[in-house]
Amino acid sequence: GDFTLTYGNDLLSQCVDLDNSPINFERVDGASARSINSISSYPYLSNPEALTSLPSVGNVNVLDTQIFVIKANEINQASEIIVKNGGILYLAGSFTGSKIKVENGGKLIITGTYTGNKIHPDSGGEVIVAPTGIFTITGNFNQGTLKNWGNVVYQSGTFDGSLENNNEVTFDDVVNLNGSSTILNNCKLTFKGKATLNSQLVNKSFVKFIDGFMINGSGVLKLTSGSYAKVTGGTYAYDGIIKNDDSSSARLDLLGTKGNINGSNRIMGKIDVNFPSTPIVTLAELQDIYKADNNVTLNGNISILASACTEGAGSSGCNNLQLSFTSIQKFKYPIP
Questions:
Q1: Which of 110, 157, 153 is nearest to 129 (CA)?
Q2: What share of the chain is helix, strand, coil (3-state, %, to 5)?
């Protein structure tokens, strides 16, 4: 029949022989792009319909601690709206006036769908796109900060403001990211036309260049651990820097056509650069022609896990969550 033996910890170690042998696994760099779950939560109202409606005539100021809404079923006909000094305006409906100015300390939060060029942020003003928001920009965003948790489509040719992307932003056409602009990408960022970087773009998740890029001398494409940057077409060229300051690798796929590359150590840090199968690029060419330093690896095909923010790529190697082991043990009766 069955019986139970109870051992103390010290006695058990003396009465068990393990038949297991050590197993060595060949591991790959544990790089994977951030998923949307790692993004900070949206801190504002998702449904502001219970708030007071904004007055709809004349010039309207929203300031200090005032909070108003243009509701989803409303058409606001104010001539001009100025949001500043701590004022907050939620935009879910329509606006027919000349402009909405978002000045220092003001916040315009788009919870519905807006297309146009009537939103004018100044330095210190914030335009925020809620998870329910869709913002299609047909004019220039030359000052202020754009924070996105929804969907943004940028149709103009220049960007001079500050962008923090926490969901999806698409630049629809050729675009210049001018020297005063900054971009922090925490999710999915797509450039459909050629992008010219004259400032810093920090990629913490996934950025795709469909028609190549030009990184000028003042421009920086900064990749972070586990991030993924991909050029799928067009020409890529750089006088500026592509770098990763972190201790774990980022991935960069260069699938377009190489243009002019000037200077030395233009690609720096732990970046795995992957090229098409033809023509073959050697490690010496990566360093001499593509100006990579000794920390950069060639065609390592490191793993990028697919998520809501990023395309998947590479070989996953060992997955700690899928490893299983069987312990084989021999028990000895203790001697009384």
A1: 110
A2: 5, 40, 55
Measured CA to CA, the distance from residue 217 to residue 237 in angstroms comes to 11
* Contact residues for 84 (Cβ-Cβ < 8 A; gap 6+): 61, 62, 63, 101, 102, 103, 104, 105, 106, 125
**Distance between CA 152 and CA 146 in Å, rounded?**
10
Write the DSSP symbol of residue 289: T
User: In sequence order, which residues have a C-beta less than 8 Å from that of residue 79 and are 6 or more positions away?
Assistant: 57, 58, 59, 97, 98
Tens-digit pLDDT profile for residues 176-193: 999 889 999 999 999 999
Q: CA geometry: angle at 30 spanning 25 and 31, to 5°?
A: 150
Q: Say whether 244 sits in a helix, a strand or coil.
A: strand
| H runs (alpha helix) in the chain | 9-14, 283-288
Q: What is the pTM of this model?
A: 0.84
**pLDDT tens-digit readout, 35-75:** 445 688 999 999 999 999 999 999 999 999 999 999 999 99
Q: Taking the chain, what is the end-to-end CA distance rounded to the nearest angstrom?
A: 22
Task: Return the DSSP state at 322.
Answer: G
Question: Which of 180, 179, 252, 182 has its CA nearest to residue 217?
Answer: 179
